[in-house]
Amino acid sequence: MEILVCIRRVPDTSENEIELNTAGNDIKRDDLVYSVNEADNYAVEEALQIVSREGGRVTVVTVGSDEDEEILRREMAMGANQGVLISDDVFSGSDGKGIATILKAYVQKNHYDLILTGVLAEDGAAQVGGMLAAMLDYPFASLVNSIQVVDAKKLKISREIEGGSKEVNEIDLPCVLSIQTGINEPRYVGMKGIRQVASLDIPTLGTSDLGIDAGAVGEAAAKVKRMDYFVPAMGKGAEILQGSREQVIEKLIELMKAKGGLK
Amino acid sequence: MPRIFAYIAHKNGVADDSAAELATAARKIDAAASPVAVFTGFGPELETACGSVRDSYVEIWKVAKEALAYPNAELVRKALLDVLPRGCIVLVPHGHFGIDLSPGLSIKMNSAFVSDVVNIEGVEGFGLNLVRQEFGGQASAHVRCDSSCGAVLSIRPGAFKPPETAALNGNVVDKSAQVGALTAKRRFVETIVADAGGVDISKEPVLVSIGRGIQEKDNVAIAQELADAMGAVVSCSRPVVDAKWLEKSRQVGTSGKTVKPKVYLACGISGSFQHLAGIKGNPFLVAINKNPKAPIFQVADIGIVDDILEFLPELTNRIRESVLSVR
């Protein structure tokens, strides 16, 4: 099975406190630690596990810039056979549809049985996989938390729905699935693994390689634009307990007794 | 203004709470709007569900097809494409079904898409000024959406209050005849209901809930010891389950359990809306987090800015001592 996994490099929210810059229109980006989007990493692991059972190849692709090559290499160190960087100045400012348009052009130049994305990235939009599927007229399922290959034509998948329940579906190949975190346990990648793939070639493709109409992507084509970031006016907010740790603990115990949390 | 349609999720003959919230969202786009509720489904449950939103909508469109008895996003999309006018604005609740349906629907309608909208601040011509959240709620963003070719907006559940207007006594219009043959490349097989697990956190009055801040599996014992000392039970947020440190049955949130405790200690939990949506009954909420900007502090009653790995063991010791001294 030929599997494509679409990945993205994002600020790692488990490593960073997201703060606004002094102008208040963007987040502070200088000291951010970037890594591969968490759900995308689960998607790559799932692809590798499918290929180890069924045979085939895993390609990881990202739309970005030279800086994003590091995440392609990281996922190649996990075992992905090929990394592809799609990069062009005209892609700057693309909205979700623009990114899906770029990926569609890449997919149509190749052949994949299965395309995976992470369910969502740092912007929480959960949109590119579903858009890409609709553009390709492939079936789509989101929030996928298990994949079983039935035969060369179809998969049996489950989706995470409310209350921890699962919705089981059959889906025809080729298809696009957005992968939920927790579907597997992504393998560890050490420095040694990354060194081993350091010299592998990662092709960079642009509009002319993919036959993309520059007018259909980038800022000019984007119908959705983020104007700025802000911190919303807080509601009442928590009463922050002040004092030494001992004092805080005493106050907390008192409060919990009053509220029935402690006998 | 383009016409506004609200896709209504429903189950067992009852419209989802989001139905009335979408009516509010529609009127925030256009105060004079008379949004149309759109239902897809089949059988008597569909009829009852349509009737249940007559207070919130003047016009209710019903698409009844056997193939739509279970909401398969691919089939629902086809049905909506057959009935909705081009250039309209479609509101969809941002749940697991909305995530399945909305992005592809926007492509097929050739309209703009904005996901998980939490507020609508105004309209300038075809430009919709919307608010979203990013980075798990750590930052909000103003988003401008060009709706000149229509728009699909998925709306965060609970973000808009149901309208207080009097009963509109809406009419149900049957649009089923406009919908062509429905076949899909994805087919619903079954729903597997979650295992209740050994401990039912939904019935516990006091929860010590842990998140990503617990950092590693061995540290879960720190929370368990505190819970034991308090006579409480340990629950958690999604990353703890993803890492396989606790069972899925311990997870609080939209994709886990809904809990109604008296006291909820959120330890190392940032406070994503998916997690908070699982906490009902307005408990006394204590947040302990070393990041003073964590969104959880906006909704907690009491906040403690500290490292849970140091704070919780000391709290446990102090509670144990006080229990001994009482005896």
Describe this structure in words.
The complex is a heterodimer of chains A (263) and B (327). Chain A has helices at residues 38-54, 69-78, 96-108, 128-136, 191-196, 207-210, 218-221, 245-259; strands at residues 2-6, 9-11, 34-36, 57-63, 82-86, 114-118, 140-149, 154-160, 166-172, 175-179, 204-205, 224-230, 239-240. Chain A contains 8 helices and 13 strands. The termini of chain A are far apart. In chain A, the strands form 2 sheets. A 9-stranded mixed sheet of chain A has the order 9-8-7-10-6-1-4-5-11, with helices on both faces. By secondary structure, chain A is an alpha/beta fold. In chain A, 30% of the residues lie in helices and 26% in strands. The model of chain A has no long low-confidence stretch (mean pLDDT 95). Chain B is α/β, with parallel strands linked by helices. Helix content of chain B is 27%, strand content 28%. Chain B contains 9 helices and 18 strands. Chain B has helices at 18-29, 44-51, 73-83, 96-108, 220-230, 238-242, 273-276, 296-299, 308-326, and strands at residues 4-7, 10-11, 14-15, 36-41, 59-64, 89-93, 112-117, 119-124, 127-134, 139-146, 151-155, 171-174, 186-192, 206-210, 233-236, 263-267, 284-288, 302-304. In chain B, strand 9 and strand 10 (139-146) form a beta hairpin. Chains A and B meet through helix 3, helix 4, strand 7, strand 8 and strand 9 of A and helix 4, strand 7, strand 9, strand 10 and strand 13 of B. Strand 12 (224-230) of chain A pairs antiparallel with strand 10 (139-146) of chain B.
Short descriptors:
heterodimer, A: 263 residues, alpha/beta, nine-stranded mixed sheet, two-stranded antiparallel sheet, 26% strand, globular, B: 327 residues, five-stranded parallel sheet, 9 helices, 27% helix, elongated
